[in-house]
## 1
Amino acid sequence: MRVLIVEDDPHIAELLRDGLTEDGYDCDLARSAAEGAELARLFPYSLLLLDVMLPEGIDAGYHLGQQLREEGITALMMYLTARGTVEDRVEGLEAGGDDYLVKPFAFRELRARIRALLRRAGGSAQNALTLPNGWVMDLGGRELHRAGVRVDLTRREFALLELLALHPERAFTRDEIIGRLWSGDACVEPKVIDVYVSTVRRKTEDRLIETLRGTGYRLGRA
Amino acid sequence: MRVLIVEDDPHIAELLRDGLTEDGYDCDLARSAAEGAELARLFPYSLLLLDVMLPEGIDAGYHLGQQLREEGITALMMYLTARGTVEDRVEGLEAGGDDYLVKPFAFRELRARIRALLRRAGGSAQNALTLPNGWVMDLGGRELHRAGVRVDLTRREFALLELLALHPERAFTRDEIIGRLWSGDACVEPKVIDVYVSTVRRKTEDRLIETLRGTGYRLGRA
DNA sequence: GAGATCCTATGCGCGTCCTGATCGTTGAAG
DNA sequence: CTTCAACGATCAGGACGCGCATAGGATCTC
């Protein structure tokens, strides 16, 4: 998750970067609208944190956001400002912003709002798992797609693939898989797993699931 | 769309609830900050309507809002107060509020502001939601159009479709839907959802709502 | 009090799940 | 290299559970 912070006050900028880095985001820093625009065009950020008042002018942050939107940048945008009137907020939101935070703010609030934004943005963030060969698994929407094609999986098929995808390095025995995915009192033959592996392979027409002979299964590589 | 009203004056509270219920929101009522905090932590509201002056103190509404924000509650917040000075407004917005309404107010204004807020939060820039297959949802009029045909939906039907349409990528379980759309004191069987899905499909003669067997429902594709 | 809406209950039909059988593959011993 | 046994892949079929749709009563609205 990559975040661009555009903020000219070095103190606040440090604060933001340290906090967000600690939360696991990859942060870049820009100290002016010009620098911010350049970076935003170069890298695929998930979120832009824009201070409204920048060296280029009192509304430079808004203009930057608006301009980037018009250039087709779809990243989420959040404005930071010291001015909190209603008109101000409306202006920011109409400039293509997704959220708005008034300084001074508690870092906890910023964190909460960022998480809410990323969550709201749909299948992104923690809800999507990328698998080998360009497959993407949307855990929220319970679907699997690649290059526009959508593959419908049943509950069991999906659960199996999800388990393997969440631990890409691990190999699972059939009994382990059953222990994790089936409720405790269920007793099924270990061979059931073979069947689901088979149907997933047939539906995707791909060997997303790798066989470890004599052991079990694992998510495929590359 | 679930709304929590925190207001100690029974007269105003009734007025708000009746009006909003008529507009299709499901409202819960709290008569103190303490009660409001409890409910807000328990249920996934879309909007909190907070009276500023509550039994706990002259600023209790602000404190409640601020506290909930710091706890990571991301619901929209709108304050209601009799005091309309500039300092007051700033205080409210700094307390994590999204909008502000000074009593006495016209219900029309409240309605308009709520719709504007929810619209922005939902990411859509207009008063209408576009759905697959050329359907358009008119959020103000509780109706659905396609190519000149108009389909009337009841309150529940509309709320269900709206929820799914606002999160097109997400799959919802029946219990999730009930948690989001039904007010707290309602306890209904999860199968109710089936009935509404059924009637929406019959009225539209289209599978706007997709079934995920074993999981729940999701907005249909293309 | 009439009509709409909301919720529960009840069969019916179909998809999903699991089993067992058959065929194909792998790898090691002879 | 050949043979053979163990393992994995795939298919067909039956049981079951889930979702669908209707009817009908309770509740709300006007």
## 2
Amino acid sequence: MQTVDKALSLLSYFSEQRPSVGLSELARLSGFNKATTRRFLVALEKHGIVEQDATTRSYRLGAGLLRLARVREATNPVAAIVQPVLNDLVSVTGETAHFSLYAGGSLATVGLSESAKSSRVMLGKGEAIPLHATASGLAYLAFARPAITDRVLSKALPAFTEHTVTGADKIRRQLSSVRKQGVAVARNTFEDGVCGIAAPVFDSDGFACGTVAIAAPAARAQRKVIASVQPEVMRAANEISLAMGAEPRSG
Amino acid sequence: MQTVDKALSLLSYFSEQRPSVGLSELARLSGFNKATTRRFLVALEKHGIVEQDATTRSYRLGAGLLRLARVREATNPVAAIVQPVLNDLVSVTGETAHFSLYAGGSLATVGLSESAKSSRVMLGKGEAIPLHATASGLAYLAFARPAITDRVLSKALPAFTEHTVTGADKIRRQLSSVRKQGVAVARNTFEDGVCGIAAPVFDSDGFACGTVAIAAPAARAQRKVIASVQPEVMRAANEISLAMGAEPRSG
DNA sequence: AATCATCGGTTCATTAAATGAACCGATAAG
DNA sequence: CTTATCGGTTCATTTAATGAACCGATGATT
């Protein structure tokens, strides 16, 4: 069913970095003939999957996707999968766990399970998480689409504590290490006394779309504790990735 | 581009009432040959648009839609359209305005603009709104997919105030009137002292997906005030409907 | 002002893909 | 045991898709 395949493959050229694209450019990107590309776009537009801007004539993802995503969410909510995974993670590690999605230049916590301990890290849903200064942020940037990482690191990076790394070069080295290890650890970089351990969450496009993390008081986060928590965070992130439509990981 | 058209038309058979569907049933519903339907589903699945349940072998909408919806939202947020519309509505009417989407058996407020008046109705984002006892609920049910309305009205309907209508037959007559007028008014039915005026919001499937409403202290909601507010609420609902992918209304 | 490049969009002879009746094994109901 | 229906597959036949060449419009360059 090659024709449907080709038409749907056009959707992968839309991203947060490329929210809209003209007909000729999309034909070039996809390698399809301009006439063929236009026919695909007309068919996608008919079903609300894309829409054409009346002024610029360029195409963007359409509002019909919102409805389909709402039906999907209503009947198969990500939360239904995420919440048990986060609860498990809290049971196993004893610390607060959260799941965040990238949107509009930062991560936003959309799933949360809190530790039962009286001394625990408090997080709020919807809070924006700075990317360069948190374990979640670093875990995301290490596996995000490179254009996003480049853009974040090209801006001025504020310090939140005296331990915050603000140099782009040094952060890039940290990201390289995170990629190798598959997990990010950040201690006292956003808030004194807090240690975060985070792994990236992927969806169907192969790049990170969010993270799973636990947050612990730094006093409890000794090296051997961190070593035992890391695989649990990675397991949880992988499980949520599958729910987000990622391909199963080998190994 | 008939083939792409047909493939995408399969997506309209998924709904909150029919979250999953088998191959043969989908072929019957769509009128396509079973072999053809399967080829379409395989192509849609490849791009994450649908996915097949490993146990039941039935198909449902896929996680890939969530990613596309997130890209769409990140770059063209509904809130960017909704918020100015709600702010306008507050300017014109002087009362708190809110936009709600239907999900999981109730409406949830997802957009809000509050009146500047010290005596005003307070609403919270994310609050579940009962369907039979509010203007928003009635505006939604009047234009929702009939299976939803039937299901809501087949359940026991609790009273919130002494003015709450709880009889299904009486509510159906109210809904009939709402359909004629295009707007619902509810006074003291959910909370004493509060009057709501609501209109349905549509998306691309032709049925209501949510509502726009204003909420005013009942003491300010005299008949002539209500008469002047109704067209403003309908105008706002229509504008948001277009952003949600509805076809433009004639007239 | 004229020229050039590229845009979105269209056409129709040519090429390729889609189609669906018939068939299969598996499973559940009677 | 029989029947009905499921998901899935095949290949001769039918139908749709394709893309080079073309169009008018627009913006940049000379």
